[in-house]
Structure formats: C-alpha cells, structure tokens
Structures
1.
Amino acid sequence: MAYDEGLAARIRDLVGPAATEKRMFGGLAFLIGGHMALAASGRGGLMVRVDPARSPELLERPGATRMVMGGREMDGWLRVSGSPEIDEVDDLADWVAEGVGFVATLPPK
C-alpha cells in the first residue's frame, strides 16, 4: 500500500518549509534538523515521534497505538490510524505539533 498523498500534502502544509521530505519505509517522512518527526505511513495513517515519557498519555487518544517494527515496539514512536483521528484539521495539527515539538528538543544531526 502506498502512502496517502493527501495526508502527506496536509502534513506538508502544517510543517512548512522547515521540514525535509524523504521516502522511507514505503511512506513519506518529514524530517526536522535531520530527525524524523512524522511520516505518512505506507501502511496507512500517520507515524509520529513523541517524547517517550508522554507515550502513555498520548496512547489514550483515539486511534493511537505503539509503533511496531520488526516485531518490536518502538519507544517514542506512535502510529495513528486513519479517520477521523487524522481527518480532522485540529487533530492532525495536534499530532504534527507533537512530532515537530519533540524533535525540536533534539540536537541537530
């Protein structure tokens, strides 16, 4: 399954020119300062990098699950399923803010 180009365009509008785009994992990743902040996933939905300490709180949001890659749960990464959790403008903006805000705390690569 290819990533949702409409979702990618909406993310692009929200992150603005500060992000670099890169095709990764069958999706389109958005990097800030060399760190992947989010991606329109090739499996559908959104991947978001978050502060691992906030993961339990963020997992309470509808559609959010821990990211699993290679059979392992990834600390600090969440998957957000499709509608309505990312179809609503405010909901997507909140997730984009989580990803961009967290990677902004990391030193540039």
Note: The longest helix spans residues 89-103.
2.
Amino acid sequence: MNEEKVLDIFRKTNALLVGHFLLTSGKHSNIYLEKFMVLQHPEYTEKLAKEIAKHFKKKKPDVVIGAAVGGIILSYEVARQLGVRGIFMEREEGKLVLRRNFEIKKGEKVLIVEDIVTTGGSVKELIDSLKNYNCKIIGVGILINRSGGELDFGIEDTYALATIDVTAYEPDGCPLCKKKIPLTARGSKYLKKSVR
C-alpha cells in the first residue's frame, strides 16, 4: 500500500481535517488527523495494521506495544496479524507504565506502534519507560508521520505508512491566529467529562 492509498483512507473516513487546530503538543496547525475516524472501521484498521506487520514480520517481535488510548486498537491489530501479544502502557501519576498485569520479560523483542506522530513525544516516552524492562526494541511502526520526516528515536527501524509535511506553529507566531480563524481543540484531552 503506497502513501497515497493510506492518505485516501484518511480522506474517505473524514479523518483528515482542515481548519485551525490546537495540537496535543500545544502548537497550532491547519491540518488535523482524527485517527479514531479511521480506527472505528475494522476493515481499514486491518489494512493499515497489515502493512506495519508486514514490514516488521522478519524481525519476529514477541510483543507489540502502544500507549493508551490510541495505541490500544493499533497494538492489538498489529499483534493479531503477527500472532504475538498486544499490550499497552497507560498513565499513572503522569508516567507511562504497564498495568493490568501486563509484563515484558527480559530479552523480549518489542515493537512499538503509534498512530499519528508530530513531535514524537509519546514514542520517546514509551522508549524511556521500556528501558526498565531490559527488552530489545526492534522498531517503531507509525500510521502517519506528520513531522515532515524529521523524527529520530535512536531506533534503527522506524517505519511510517505515510509521511506528510504539515506545518505546526507556536501559538504566538501562528498566522491562523493573526487571521482570527477560530481555534479548535480536538482529541480526547479536550472533551468535557460527563457527570453521572
């Protein structure tokens, strides 16, 4: 599957949005990729995960890991296609940790997966957290690298299904703010909690 086909899936599912968006990094952008618009469709998730699994199959990972919440679906599906365990880390007191009795044994080969990468902060956090487990990180698989290709995790095999160059602006230098285009905060971080 080439990059254009990957991006076409994002377009078909209305996951590629144009406007003025506040990113998780705190920066602003005119493009937002709403991964869950794609990941809600099992047939698309399966196709995309298949490409990541195919790339890393020869490295024979023992476990695939992602970060909650976005990484749960992707790590599960990539792991399913590789026939290995799929787990995730989640935040506890602000740090990514293994919970739910998940474990990584010493020497196990771990494949990290991530959906959308802008600055790579979540992947770097996963890598740092995995240092506590004496495992071998064999690669990082990404749906879309929106950094423009400037990522370096210090991992030999970093593979993205598509790389797009999307400009992200610091808030005080954002041309979209200067044009007074309304800012939209997307993602679960910004959803109001419901009261039950």
Note: Residues 3-190 form a domain with the Rossmann fold fold (CATH 3.40.50.2020).
